[in-house]
Amino acid sequence: MAGGRRGWMLRSVESRNITLALELRVADDALTGRVTTPDGNDTSFSGWLGLVATIEALLAEPEPEATA
User: Which of 21, 29, 38, 49 is the most exposed place for a label (fewest CB within 10 A)?
Assistant: First the structure.
């Protein structure tokens, strides 16, 4: 690496647990189903990529605020 040494910056690591209910339906080679969050919101998906995209979208949502 030319130009000298670069320092590494550590980003703060965020950790959280997410509970999801997963319902899968497999017919022939087709996968469909739905993911349900603890608050009862359902998201339907189709195919493996749909499942992954659904989970990624749920992970991107902000964590609900805790009520005191």
Answer: 29
How many domains does the chain fold into? 1
Domain presence at residue 65: no
> In 3D, which of 16, 35, 17, 14 has the Cα closest to residue 25?
35
Give per-residue pLDDT as tens, 8-64: 666 677 777 889 999 999 998 899 999 999 899 999 999 999 999 999 998 887 766
Q: Residue 38 is part of which domain span?
A: 21-60
Q: If residue 65 lies in a helix (H) or strand (E), which one and from where to where? A: none
The answer to whether position 12 is within a domain reads: no
- Distance separating alpha carbons of residues 44 and 36, to the nearest angstrom: 9
Question: Residue 23's pLDDT is what?
Answer: 96
